[in-house]
Amino acid sequence: MKILALLYGTQLFGRERENIECFKAFDQLGAKVEVFGSSRELHGGDSGLLLEKLQFKVGELPFGSHFALSYFRTIKGYWYKQIYRIFSCSWRMWRRERKTKPDYVFLGGTMEYLYVWPWLLFSNVKVIFRVEDQPAWDSRFHLFIWRRLVNRADLVVACSQFIAEDCKKLISARNVGKVHVIGNCVPTFKGEGQLSEPPSQDSKNLKLVYIGQITINKGIEDLFDAMLTLKNDPVELKVVGGSPYTKSLEEELQRRIKDEGLNIEWIGRVENPVKYYEWADVHVAPSRYEEPFGLVVIEAKSSSVPSIVYPSGEMKNLIQHGTDGWICENKTLDSLVQEIRIANSRRMDLKRMGDAAQKDFLKNYTFEVFRESRVCLRLFECHSHHRERRNNAWR
Question: Cα(14)–Cα(212) distance, rounded to whole angstroms?
């Protein structure tokens, strides 16, 4: 099986990491995967470098920025630039299709589709759409693109049941059966995996860790407000994450640590966050927006760490409240503080909850479970049957 895969993102955020896990699964199942990243950054950025390290054949496409109305209004000539990029990406992929004759094209999001839709409009190649994000319900333009893509795709693979239900709202009734769910798995991290100093066993504080993007949507400000409320409680926090795009918010939060005397250690961006999960007693993910999945919760589970989460999107389905973590009653500061205090009062139960978390991870979220999912296997079975029928017809 030959697959041409498109990957828009250059930074190794959750969506990029999970799409790369898909490529690895296809490769291990015997497919030949060729990935096209973005030329916005040298070698396709961190995503392209990781793909090269994994020995995938990697090409580049002239993907541009987002299709935001403000860009078209404020950047001179932006219309012409985007039209040129769409034409260039579509032309290159058309030529590549003619040369390689792929069985499938893999799209990891709507941004990839926006830059190659003319090619897919006139091509009969089958499309796999891996859905890692929610539809933009507040944008007519992006909802139009979503509808076109989910109906054009031959297989829609959602990262969660929460996202699958959203996809079904945008697809014709006769095509609902092509929507399937394959939950995410923990990606392979590179870089140093051990703390330079072993964690103190005598710490009287409840050790919390936040790992992820430093954005308002992820609830980082709520967590800082909670630490201010808990200033006199035996609680400490490490914050791991960051990117070139969130520097202003990061600088503001670091000022708060100093000005308000918060018991928070700012770690910043790291290649391998595993050591910080292993350091923590509890992982905290107070996402304000409806999370498509919640990969950080699964990463915490893999390290035997329970999580405290807001009831956001799929996150509330990843946790069994009181068994392998806690789900806040609502998305408020008071609710977050309450659950942290409950965790602090149940120190004796944290080991048991961590074991339950790891058990759930091993059962449902390992790479082997991901690779051997019935959707992946059925895809390859269908391809094998099709190839066998074609060979018999030639005979």
Answer: 9
pTM, rounded to two decimals: 0.83
Alpha-carbon distance of 162 to 335, in angstroms, equals 23
Per the CB < 8 A criterion, the answer to whether 241 and 14 are in contact is no
Alpha-carbon torsion, ordered 313, 314, 319, 325, to 10 deg: -50
Strands of the sheet with 307-309, listed across from one edge:
264-268, 235-240, 206-211, 282-285, 307-309, 325-327
Q: Hey, is 209 helix, strand or coil?
A: strand
What is the identity of the amino acid at 388? E
Give the span between the Cα atoms of 352 and 318, in whole angstroms. Answer: 17
Neighbour-count burial of 276, counting CB atoms closer than 10 A to its CB (0-12 exposed, 13-18 middle, 19+ buried):
buried
The C-alpha atoms of residue 131 and residue 109 are separated, in whole angstroms, by: 6
State mean pLDDT over 115-133.
94
> What one-letter code names the amino acid at 389?
R
Q: Which residues contact 86 (CB under 8 A, 6 or more apart)?
A: 114, 115, 116, 117, 118
From CA 27, how far away is CA 51, in angstroms rounded? 12
Q: What is the pLDDT of residues 234-283, one digit of tens each?
A: 999 999 999 888 999 999 999 999 999 999 999 999 988 999 999 999 99
DSSP 136: -
Q: 267: exposed, middle or buried (C-beta count within 10 Å: 0-12, 13-18, 19+)?
A: middle
Highest mean pLDDT among 158-162, 250-254, 371-375: 250-254
- 3-class DSSP state of 54: coil
What are the b/e assignments for 13-30, b being 16+ CB within 10 Å?
A: bbbbbbbbbbbbbbbeee
Please give the Cα distance from 184 to 318 (Å, whole number).
11
- CB of 287 closer than 8 Å to CB of 295: no
Burial per residue of 99-122, b for 16 or more beta-carbon CB atoms within 10 angstroms, e otherwise: eeebbbbbbbbbbbbbbbbebbee
Angstrom distance (rounded) from CA 116 to CA 125? 13
- Count CB atoms within 10 A of the CB of residue 68: 13
H helices present in the chain, as ranges: 14-28, 45-53, 69-74, 78-100, 110-122, 140-152, 161-169, 220-229, 247-260, 274-279, 295-302, 315-318, 333-345, 350-364, 367-371, 374-394
